Amino acid sequence: MSIWKKPISVEALSTMALGTAIAHLGIEFLEVGDDFISARVPVDTRTCQPYGLLHGGVSVVLAETLGSCGAMYASPEGHKAVGLDINANHLRGVTSGWVTGTARPVHIGRTTQVWQIDLVDDAGKMVCASRITMAVLV
After folding, report:
1. Signal sequence: where (predicted)?
2. Rounded to 5 degrees, what angle do the CA atoms 100, 106, 112 make?
3. I need a labelling partner for 7 at 20 to 30 A (CA). Which of 29, 52, 95, 131 fits?
């Protein structure tokens, strides 16, 4: 059973991202399932820190993008979702390829939502574990 309260698609998410930090960093939405959203970010000159590793802040941008989009589309029409708190545990450095994130809800409540976002490298190894808490506003 789908958790989405508003029409959602990869195309809708991609259109919403035009002209934003999401597009600037090269983040691409990949899939929308009944209870998840996935997207990826390239590891390149836009997203690396001086040591040649994916910047931890970019991992958090990917995580927050996925969690925020999930919360927005899982909220009733006329409601919006805004971030209250995000954390990220950086587990492994990445120097090339793509990092793919998948967001799934932990809790969808009337006034708050909590989303878990797991980021993996091209080999499927965990790069970052993140969790975001969202406030649902009318």
Report:
1. none
2. 115
3. 131
